[in-house]
Specification:
The protein is an alpha+beta fold. It has ten helices and 27 strands.
C-alpha cells in the first residue's frame, strides 16, 4: 500500500501541542459558544486543514438540557437510569436528532439537537445488546442486536414495528439497508447476510469464514475469508466494504458478492491496521475507517492510498479514546456551523463514537477553511521559492576584489545554492511524509546546517528531526516487544509455561500494546497460572 504525500506524520507531534479551554457550561448553548476552545484542525497548521473538530456530546449538559440538581436528587433520589452516554458504539443522525447505541446501558439514546432534549428510543424498555443503528431516508430505524439474534425495526414515531432475522440464526453486528435488501454482518458465521426486509427470506451470504487461528498468532487469511467480522458500508455502486478486527483489514465485494480486493494488513505503521471497526464511504468514494487500537481514524482513496489520519489517543478535543464507529452526514451541517471558524465551508459532518473518556461522541466538519490561505502563504515561505521574500542568514562581508567580480556572479551562486537547499527540503519532506525517516533525517540535517533558512523554518525542521528520533526509539522498543510476544507464544505452545509467563508479563507491562491485546495476554496468563497450579502443585509467580 502506498501513502500519498498529503499524509502528514507531523500531526502526531503537533496534535498533542494544541491547547484549549475545555470547560463547557451546562445550561445554554450560548454559554458554550462563549467558552469555545481554540480551533482544532486536521492536519494542523501550517498544513492545509481539511477537518475541524466542532463539538462533543456525552450527556444532556452538552445539549444545554436541564439536569437534576443536587437538592432534587436529595429529595427525590437518583434517577433509575443514569443520565448521559456510558459506552457508545453505533450511531446515526437524522432530522436533527442523534441516535446513539449505548451498549453500556443496553438502550438507544436520542439527543435532539434542536430542542436540546435527551431521551431514549425504547423509553422504559431495554434491548438485549443494541450495537448498531441504521436510519433510512423516511425515518425507519433498524437496530442490530447480536445477543437477541435479530434486527429491531422502529417506525417514524419510534414505535417497534417488527423484528427481522429471528429465523436466520444470525447475530447481527452492523446493518445497512439498500432498497428492499438488508445487509448485516453476522458474528455467528463471519459472513455478510443479505435478506429481504419484507419477506425476511435470505438472499445471499457474502464472504466465507476463515479457519480458526492458533491462539495469539497474527492471522494471514486468504482473500475473501473473514475471521472476526465487524462493521460494513456500501458505496454508490453497491459495493460492500467490511472490516475484520482479527485479520486487521478491509475486504471489498461487489454487489453480487464477488471478491474485489482487500485493503490494509496488520501492523503498527500508520498505513496499517491493528483493530479496524467502524467504516463509512463518502460521496467521492473515499473510505473512512476507525482503528480502535491506535485510536485514530483514517481516510483512503479508491487506490487504497492513505490520504489523511486524524484523532490520536487522548481526551482533549478532537482526540479519541477507544473509537468504535464512524458516520458521515450531509444533511445536518447547519446545526454545527456555529462551532466552525468564521468563513468555513463545511461539506459534511464526521461523527466518531468513543467508548472511553469524556468525549463520547465527537463531531468534525470536513470542508474548506479560511486558514488555508495562511497555511499556503507559510508553505510558500518555507519552500524558498526564487523571488519570494526570505529571511536568510546574512552573508559574510566581501572585499573590494570580490565585489568587482563578474556582475551577478556572487548573487547567482548564492541563488543556486538556495534553490538546491529548497529542493532538498522538499525531497526530505516528501520522504518524511512517506515514512522513509532515515533518508529524511539526512536531508533535514543538511538543510538545517546550510544557514540559508529562516528561523521559523529551522524550528520546524528541528521538530521533524525530534519526531524522527522519537519514532526510531519507539520503533525499536516495539520491535523488541513484538519479538518477546512471539517468543512467548512459541514457549506457550511448546509447553514452556514459566518462560512464556515471564515474556507475557514483560509485554503486558511495556505500555506499548493496545487494550485488546492486553486482554488477550491476560487470558494467556490466567491459563498459564491455572496450568502451573495444577502441575505438581507449583504456584505461579
Amino acid at each position: 500500500m502506498t501513502v500519498s504525500n498529503s499524509l502528514l506524520y507531523r500531526g502526531l507531534a503537533l496534535a498533542f501541542a494544541v491547547s484549549a479551554a475545555y470547560i463547557f457550561a451546562g445550561c445554554q448553548l450560548a454559554e458554550v459558544e462563549q467558552q469555545r476552545q481554540e480551533p482544532v484542525f486536521f492536519p494542523p497548521l501550517p498544513e492545509r486543514p481539511r477537518l475541524q473538530f466542532l463539538k462533543s456530546f456525552s450527556g444532556p449538559e452538552d445539549l444545554g438540557a436541564p439536569t437534576s440538581g443536587a437538592f432534587e436528587r436529595f429529595v427525590l433520589g437518583d434517577p433509575e437510569t443514569q443520565e448521559g452516554i456510558t459506552k457508545p458504539y453505533g450511531m446515526a443522525i437524522f432530522d436533527g436528532k442523534l441516535y446513539v447505541c449505548d451498549v453500556g446501558k443496553r438502550m438507544v439514546e436520542v439527543l435532539d439537537l434542536e430542542k436540546r432534549t435527551f431521551s431514549y428510543l425504547t423509553k422504559n424498555e431495554r434491548l438485549t445488546n443494541p450495537v448498531n443503528i441504521y436510519i433510512t431516508d423516511n425515518g425507519i430505524k433498524y437496530v442490530a442486536d447480536p445477543t437477541a439474534g435479530a434486527v429491531f425495526v422502529f417506525d417514524g414515531d419510534n414505535s417497534l414495528s417488527t423484528i427481522l432475522g429471528k429465523d436466520l440464526k444470525i447475530a447481527p453486528i452492523d446493518i445497512t439497508v439498500r432498497g428492499q435488501r438488508c445487509y448485516v454482518t453476522d458474528f455467528n458465521s463471519n459472513q455478510i447476510v443479505v435478506f429481504d426486509k419484507n419477506t425476511q427470506k435470505e438472499i445471499a451470504r457474502i464472504g466465507t469464514e476463515g479457519a480458526a487461528q492458533p491462539k495469539g498468532t497474527m492471522p494471514e487469511l486468504p482473500p475473501g475469508q473473514l475471521l472476526l467480522i465487524s462493521d460494513l458500508a456500501l458505496d454508490k455502486q453497491g459495493n460492500v466494504y467490511v472490516t475484520d478486527k482479527a485479520a486487521a483489514r478491509i475486504t471489498q465485494f461487489d454487489g453480487s458478492g464477488k471478491l474485489l480486493r482487500t485493503i490494509g494488513r496488520w501492523g503498527p505503521n500508520i498505513d496499517q491496521f491493528i483493530r479496524p471497526k467502524g467504516i463509512a464511504i463518502d460521496r467521492n468514494d473515499r473510505i473512512w475507517v476507525v482503528d480502535a487500537a491506535p485510536e485514530v481514524a483514517k481516510i483512503y482513496d479508491q487506490q487504497a492510498r492513505l490520504l489523511l489520519f486524524f484523532g490520536l489517543s487522548g481526551n482533549k478535543p478532537g482526540m479519541m479514546n477507544l473509537p468504535a464507529k464512524i458516520v458521515l452526514d450531509y444533511d445536518n451541517v447547519e446545526l454545527f456551523e456555529q462551532y466552525a471558524v468564521e468563513g468555513a465551508k463545511i461539506e459534511f459532518l464526521v461523527l466518531v463514537s468513543n467508548q472511553l473518556g469524556p468525549n463520547k461522541i465527537s463531531v468534525y466538519g470536513f470542508g474548506r477553511f479560511p486558514v488555508q490561505e495562511r497555511a499556503v502563504a507559510e508553505a510558500k515561505e518555507l519552500t524558498l521559492e526564487p523571488g519570494s521574500e526570505r529571511e536568510l542568514a546574512p552573508r559574510a562581508d566581501k572585499g573590494p576584489a570580490q565585489i568587482s567580480e563578474t556582475p551577478g556572479q556572487v548573487d547567482s551562486q548564492s541563488d543556486k545554492r538556495q534553490e538546491e537547499i529548497a529542493e532538498l527540503y522538499q525531497r526530505s519532506l516528501a520522504l518524511y511524509r512517506s515514512g522513509q525517516y532515515e533518508e529524511a533525517r539526512e536531508g533535514f540535517a543538511t538543510v538545517l546546517k546550510s544557514g540559508l533558512i529562516p528561523a521559523s523554518m529551522a524550528g520546524t525542521i528541528e521538530g521533524y528531526l525530534t519526531d524522527i528520533e522519537n519514532r526510531a526509539a519507539r520503533s525499536k522498543q516495539m520491535e523488541e516487544i513484538a519479538e518477546t510476544y512471539y517468543s512467548s507464544i512459541k514457549s506457550y505452545r511448546t509447553g514452556q509455561l514459566e518462560k512464556a509467563r515471564a515474556g507475557f508479563v514483560i509485554v503486558l507491562n511495556s505500555g506499548l500494546i493496545p487494550p485488546a491485546m492486553g486482554k488477550t495476554i491476560e487470558n494467556y496468563l490466567a491459563d498459564i497460572d491455572d496450568a502451573l497450579t495444577k502441575r505438581q502443585g507449583i504456584q505461579p509467580r
